[in-house]
Amino acid sequence: MTQTPPSLHHDDIAKVLDSVLDTQTGHSLLALGKLEGFRLEEGKLSVALSVPREKAAALSPLCDEAALRLKQFPGVQDATLILTAHRPAGPTAPTPGRTAPAAGGGHRPFGGAPPADPNAPVLPDVKAIIAVASGKGGVGKSTTATNLAVALAQQGLKVGLLDADIYGPSLHRMLGTSTKPVALQGRLQPLDVWGLKAVSIGMLVDEKQAMIWRGPMVMGAITQFLTDVDWGPLDVMVVDMPPGTGDAQLSLMQKVPLAGAVIVSTPQDIALIDARRGVSMFEKMKVPVLGLIENMSYFCCPKCGHNTELFGHGGARKEAEALQVPFLGEVPLLASIRSSGDDGTPIVASAPESDAAQAFRRIAQATAESLKDRLTP
C-alpha cells in the first residue's frame, strides 16, 4: 500500500473504529469486524474492514460515523470505509492423485460454488489468449486493449475482452456498458458489445467503491472470470492486465497458457524502464512478447496539423530493437481518443477513418499476423 505519514498508524485507525458503538448491541465497529488495512493518498483515506456478509448492511450507518471521525486526523481531507467479506472455504475431500487445497484458500469474491474439477483445462475453446500489459499506470493500456480487441473483431475474429485490472477497472466505461451481466445456470454471461464479448468487475460493482482487496481475493476474482464466465468459442481473448508486475499477473500466467503479451509504453525514458521490466517478467514466465506499442507517440494539433513530440518520440521502437522484440506501432496523442473512451465509443468503431483508428487497426493486423499459427483452422 502507499506509504502513509508517520502521524497515522494502524492503532490510530483501530482506536477510532473502537470508539464507534452499535447502540443495540453495545459492540464497537472494531469488535464487529477486522481491520484489514488502510491507504492515505493525496488527503483521501480509505479503510478496509472485513465483516460477516450478513452484517454488512446493518453496519453501514456506523461506517458513516467512523468516516466523520477519521477526517479529524491531520492530513485527512476525506475518509471512506470499505466493507469486505471473505467467503469461508468449505472442506474439500482430496481425490486420488490430487492434492487437497491449502487451508484458508478458496476466496470467491462473486460467490458461487468452486469448480467441480480444479484440474480441468481453463478456456479450452479459446484459440489464443493475449495479455495487454504495462510496467506502470497512465500509459493508455486500457484504451489500447479496448481498441485492439474491437479492431481484431472487425477482422472477422471471435474476440473476448477480459478486464483483469481489479483495482482500477475501466473497460465498462470505455465500452459504454451500463448493464450488469446475468448468470444462467451458474455461469456469468459476458456482454455483447462492439462485436465482442466483454466482462469487467466494473460491470458488477459500484464504480464509486474502491476495490480494497487482499491478494487472495484478487486472484479469486481473476480465476472466476476465467472459469465461471460463459465465454464460448473464441479466436482471441484480450486480457487488460493491471499495471506492474505483481500477483495478478503471475496468477493469470499460471492459470492459462498465454499465446503472447503486448507491452504498452510512452516514449519517455522513465516509462520505458517499466516497460523493460514487463518484458523481463513475461520472458521469465516463458510467455512470448508479441511486441511493444508506443502510445502518445506525438501530439497532432487539430488546428494546424503540426506534430509535437511532447514525451519524445521513437523510444519504444528503439527499446524493442534493443530487447529484440517486435515493434507493433505507434499511436498519436489525440483528443478524439480520450473523448471516445469517455463516451464509451471506441475510436476504431466510432471514427474508423481517423488517424487514431488506422493506427490501432495496423497494430491489430500485426498482432493477428503473429498469432496466425493458432488462428488457422
What average pLDDT do the residues reach? 80
Shape: globular
CATH superfamily of the largest domain: P-loop containing nucleotide triphosphate hydrolases
Biggest β-sheet description: 8 strands, mixed
Secondary-structure element pattern, one letter each: HHEEHEEHEHEEEEHEHEHEEEHEHHHH
First CA to last CA: what distance? Answer: 46 Å
Residue share in helix: 25-40%
Multimeric organization: single chain
Which stretches are low in confidence, meaning pLDDT under 50 for 5 or more residues running? 1-6, 87-106
GO molecular function: 4 iron, 4 sulfur cluster binding; ATP binding; ATP hydrolysis activity; ATP-dependent FeS chaperone activity; metal ion binding
Protein name: Iron-sulfur cluster carrier protein
Keywords: ATP-binding, Hydrolase, Iron, Iron-sulfur, Metal-binding, Nucleotide-binding
InterPro entries: FSCA_dom_sf, Mrp-like_CS, Mrp/NBP35_ATP-bd, NUBPL-like, P-loop_NTPase, YlxH/NBP35
Description:
Belongs to the Mrp/NBP35 ATP-binding proteins family. ATP binds at residues 135-142. Homodimer. Residues 87-102 have a biased composition (Low complexity). With 377 residues, the chain is α/β, with parallel strands linked by helices. It has 2 domains: 10-84, Fe-S cluster assembly (FSCA) (GMP Synthetase, Chain A, domain 3, 2-Layer Sandwich), CATH 3.30.300; 126-375, P-loop containing nucleotide triphosphate hydrolases (Rossmann fold), CATH 3.40.50. 34% of the residues lie in helices and 20% in strands. It has 13 helices and 15 strands. The strands form 4 sheets. It has an 8-stranded mixed β-sheet, with helices on both faces. A 3-stranded mixed β-sheet has the order 1-2-3. A two-stranded antiparallel ribbon has the order 6-7. Strand 11, helix 8 (269-284) and strand 12 form a beta-alpha-beta unit. Helix 8 packs parallel to helix 9. It is globular and about 65 Å long. Mean pLDDT is 80; it is low at 1-6 and 87-106.
